[in-house]
């Protein structure tokens, strides 16, 4: 069991909060280890104290996007620093069930009955009684069936759960207990299913028909509106799945967001500091439960605009390490007589102006994307960030030297570039994480870099302050340790 889950359960008990884990108890252990979701039922009148206790335990409440919200169900997400795990808690204040993407029935009395009959599992967590859970499982499975499911077999997981419960229930007890939930006709169908060899979903149809009649009082949807809402939600869910699994970088959330709004975390670091590895890990972990967008704001091997892609290919072929430095030295040497400047140097300078202009426009567009995603409630992870502290280096302005001209074409381009870079400071990130390693380790990881290049990059990173919240994390330690520190800092601001 995760320590944070253990602490939460102890806090619930200390505060005399009535609860029970009400479904899928057959695989409760993975849920207690943070590998699957926890589904816990609470008394609606205790919601305020539940919110307070969960907040004190470090959990954060998230809000499902409108088309993914269900009545009386809320989302809490926790972070376990010992294991670097994100885990998910669904709080249920009413018994809401029904078809997938709809859950059209909210049966208020059932929640109180479940809590009355709860039991303590392994002296650690309260769960529903086996009898109550089996009744609910059969009811839930019958209400979930749609016309396209009639010919389908019951899923392996459902069969395993039913078999597990059948081995633990007392049939005499369940025959009495089912009458406290359902009328005689529905209860009779439940008992038939319990004594039947279940293989296909169509075996639940008789119970479904009885339940729809009996539970009609607990839904506010007409059949036509139910179909419309379910279809709309299912389409929305499918689009979200395509975006997530297809690696698409949407600016709109499709699962859940924080009520406090979105946030932007930017990652800076010298070569060899493990920036790419860290961002990839953070995205993978947070994306399990939260809508995350990643964006690259550098000029190197990351994503680039359509216009700059061919320019990058040309630069790799005709450019070379030290070319820019040699051109600058040539201009300094012949600053009093520009007629001696070589054609190669002139072409390079022109190309640099074009490159800087395209790059600045690209950054401006990406900054707008970041703002849109944050305003929509997403967590945005930014690789590198524009800065104005150091011109011509480390994501700083590239043609600022032309500002001294005071007028002319090159001056206007340089001024436009500077204005775009300054935009990054007007709407800064919520957190800047600076990943640093000793120079000798950075060279071991990036042998193509010189010691001086590493030192210059580290100095530039330490000078950059795009946001008020900034932390420096040593990534030369054990990977799990550094990733844990990064995740902990991010969790503070989400």
From TrEMBL:
<dbReference type="InterPro" id="IPR027417">
    <property type="entry name" value="P-loop_NTPase"/>
</dbReference>
<protein>
    <recommendedName>
        <fullName>Thymidylate kinase-like domain-containing protein</fullName>
    </recommendedName>
</protein>
């Amino acid at each position: 069991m995760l320590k944070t889950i253990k602490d939460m359960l102890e806090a619930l008990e200390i505060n005399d909060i009535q609860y029970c884990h009400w479904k899928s108890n057959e695989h409760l252990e993975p849920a207690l280890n943070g590998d699957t979701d926890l589904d816990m039922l609470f008394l609606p009148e205790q919601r305020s104290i539940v919110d307070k206790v969960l907040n004190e335990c470090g959990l954060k409440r998230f809000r499902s996007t409108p088309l993914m919200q269900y009545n009386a169900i809320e989302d809490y997400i926790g972070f376990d620093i010992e294991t670097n795990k994100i885990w998910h808690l669904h709080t249920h204040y009413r018994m809401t069930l029904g078809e997938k993407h709809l859950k059209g029935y909210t049966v208020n009395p059932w929640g109180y009955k479940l809590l009355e009959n709860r039991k303590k599992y392994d002296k650690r967590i309260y769960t529903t009684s086996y009898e109550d859970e089996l009744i609910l499982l059969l009811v839930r499975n019958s209400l979930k069936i749609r016309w396209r499911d009639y010919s389908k077999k019951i899923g392996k997981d459902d069969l395993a759960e039913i078999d597990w419960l059948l081995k633990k229930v007392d049939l005499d007890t369940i025959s009495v207990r089912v009458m406290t939930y359902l009328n005689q006709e529905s209860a009779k169908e439940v008992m038939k299913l319990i004594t039947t060899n279940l293989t296909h979903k169509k075996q639940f149809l008789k119970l479904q028909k009885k339940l729809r009649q009996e539970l009609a009082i607990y839904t506010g949807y007409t059949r036509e509106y139910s179909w419309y809402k379910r279809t709309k939600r299912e389409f929305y869910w499918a689009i979200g799945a395509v975006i997530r699994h297809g690696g698409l970088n949407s600016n709109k959330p499709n699962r859940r967001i924080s009520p406090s709004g979105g946030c932007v975390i930017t990652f800076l670091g010298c070569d060899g500091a493990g920036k790419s590895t860290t961002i990839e890990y953070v995205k993978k972990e947070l994306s399990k439960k939260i809508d995350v967008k990643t964006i690259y704001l550098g000029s190197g091997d990351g994503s680039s605009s359509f216009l700059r892609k061919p320019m990058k290919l040309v630069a790799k072929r005709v450019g070379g390490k030290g070319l820019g430095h040699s051109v600058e030295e040539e201009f300094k040497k012949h600053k009093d007589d520009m007629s001696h400047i070589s054609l190669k140097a002139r072409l390079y300078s022109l190309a640099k102006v074009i490159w800087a202009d395209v790059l600045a426009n690209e950054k401006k567009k990406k900054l707008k994307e970041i703002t849109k995603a944050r305003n929509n409630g997403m967590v945005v992870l930014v690789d590198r960030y524009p800065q104005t502290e150091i011109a011509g280096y480390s994501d700083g302005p590239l043609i600022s030297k032309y500002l001294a001209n005071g007028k002319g074409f090159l001056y206007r381009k340089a001024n436009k570039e500077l204005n775009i870079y300054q935009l990054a400071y007007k709407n800064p990130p919520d957190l800047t994480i600076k990943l640093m390693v000793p120079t000798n380790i950075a060279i071991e990881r990036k042998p193509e870099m010189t010691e001086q290049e590493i030192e210059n990059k580290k100095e530039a990173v330490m000078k950059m302050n795009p946001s008020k919240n900034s932390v420096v994390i040593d990534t030369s330690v054990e990977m799990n340790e550094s990733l844990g520190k990064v995740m902990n800092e991010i969790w503070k601001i989400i």
